[in-house]
Amino acid sequence: MNRKPAGIILSAGESRRMGRDKALLEYRRTTFLGRIIAVLEPRVEPLVVVLGHHAEAIRQAVPSGPRVVVNTNYQAGMLTSLQTGIRELPCDTEAALFTLVDHPAVAEETVELLIGEWAKARPLIAIPRRGVRRGHPVIVNRQVLDEILALGPESSAKDVIRSHRDRTLFVDVDDAGVLCDIDLPEQYERLR
Question: Which residue among 48, 111, 140, 167 is the one 20 to 30 A from 148 at the CA level?
Answer without folding.
Answer: 111
